[in-house]
Amino acid sequence: MSYLNRVRTVLDEIAGSHRLREIASPELAGAIDFSSNDYLALSTDPRVIDVLRSADRAGSGGARLLGGRHREHWALEEELAAHLGRER
Predict the structure, then answer these.
(1) Whole-angstrom Cα distance, residue 32 to residue 29?
(2) Share of the chain residues as helix, strand and coil, in percent rounded to the nearest 5
(3) φ/ψ of residue 13, rounded to 5
């Protein structure tokens, strides 16, 4: 039996004993889900998707300790600092 078949079997057993937990995802028009990492809905924005298709790399990278520092970070920090009149 494959791994996926074992998982399906166990999930069926859990569901059969009424212990399967599912997260409801109501689609409320105009609602913003601030509990997700995509509360700005950028993952489905056609402009973002179009740009990602030509990107050399993509992903959040977590924190700098995990993803490193890239020139894009530096450019964004410089632009924000200049706009806010603060140090980067």
Answers:
(1) 9
(2) 50, 0, 50
(3) -65, -45
Residue 15 — φ and ψ, nearest 5°? -65, -40
Q: What is the enclosing helix (H) or strand (E) of 51?
A: helix 46-53
- pLDDT per residue over 9-47, tens digit each? 999 999 999 999 987 766 667 777 777 777 788 888 999
d(CA 33, CA 86): 31
H helices, E strands: number in the chain: 4, 0
- Does pTM surpass 0.85? no
- Residue 59 CB neighbour total at 10 angstroms: 8
Q: Taking a C-beta distance cutoff of 8 angstroms, is the pair 16, 10 a contact?
A: no
Nearest-5° Cα angle at 27, 23 to 31: 110
Residue 12, token pair as written in the block:
């069926």
Query: Cα 32 to chain center, whole Å?
Result: 15
